[in-house]
Structures are given as C-alpha cells and as structure tokens.
C-alpha cells in the first residue's frame, strides 16, 4: 500500500479549507475532503503525476484539485504532502516567505 505523509502545514491547510467551505455547507466540505483524499491516493500510487515545481523547491510537484493545488514530494513508496493552497494565491511568495522565515525545511 502506498504511503501518504502529510506535513503539519498541509494538515493546517486542509483544516482551514474544510472550515471555510463548511461555513456554507458541511456536506460540500466533506465532499471536498473526500475528493482531496482520492487525489492523495492517486498521487501516492503514481507520484510522477502533476507538474514539476523545481522553481519552488527541488523535486517538488503540484497537482490541481478543483481550485486548490496540492504540493508534494514523491517518495519511493508514496508521497509527502507539503501544502494545499488555493490556486489564486501568490504561491511563489508564500514559499519564498516560508523559506525566509525558516518554516520550510523539506530536507
């Protein structure tokens, strides 16, 4: 079975997304959570899917799920989910700020 690791920031992102969507509809939030979990399973089985994001971090990849972008590192036996961000956000700035603040230690 493929491994799906989720970094603390990714878990926080997922919680925030669920809470935001649940403000309008808990059932929609639950459906989105299930859709994200399905994407994680797909990526864990085929970690080469998605787009290479070497400009953000070596070996980092991204995969779009609706309006959100899953950022992950492929593993030999699955994936390591780094962040899940809304696609309209300034993703490069977010990753740059985290690196400057020492919050993004992916090695």
How would you briefly describe this protein structure?
This protein has 107 residues and is an alpha+beta fold. The chain is built from three helices and five strands.
Task: Provide key terms for this protein.
107 residues; alpha+beta; YaeB-like fold; five-stranded mixed β-sheet; 3 helices; 26% strand; globular
What does this structure look like?
- This protein has 107 residues and is an alpha+beta fold.
- It has one domain: 2-Layer Sandwich (YaeB-like fold).
- Helices cover 42% and strands 26% of the residues.
- It contains 3 helices and 5 strands.
- The protein has helices at residues 8-22, 26-45, 91-100, and strands spanning 3-6, 51-52, 61-65, 68-75, 78-86.
- The protein has a 5-stranded mixed β-sheet.
- The model has no long low-confidence stretch (mean pLDDT 89).
Model regions low in confidence, pLDDT < 50 over at least 5 residues: none
The major pleated sheet works out as: 5 strands, mixed
Helix content: 40-55%
* Mean pLDDT reading: 89
The CATH class is identified as Alpha Beta
Number of strands: 5
Fourth-tier CATH superfamily name: RelE-like
Outline the fold blueprint:
Elements: E1 3-6, H1 8-22, H2 26-45, E2 51-52, E3 61-65, E4 68-75, E5 78-86, H3 91-100
Parallel strand pairs: 1-5
Antiparallel strand pairs: 2-3, 3-4, 4-5
Helix pairs in contact: 1-2
């Amino acid at each position: 079975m493929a491994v799906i690791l989720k970094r603390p920031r990714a878990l926080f992102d997922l919680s925030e997304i669920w809470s935001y969507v649940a403000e309008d509809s808990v059932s929609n939030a639950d459906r989105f959570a299930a859709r994200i979990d399905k994407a994680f399973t797909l990526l864990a089985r085929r970690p080469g899917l998605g787009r290479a994001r070497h400009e953000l971090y070596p070996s980092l990849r991204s995969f779009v799920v609706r309006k959100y972008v899953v950022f992950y590192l492929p593993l030999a036996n699955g994936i390591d989910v780094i962040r899940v961000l809304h696609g309209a956000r300034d993703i490069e700035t977010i990753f740059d700020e985290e690196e400057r603040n020492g919050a993004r230690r992916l090695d």
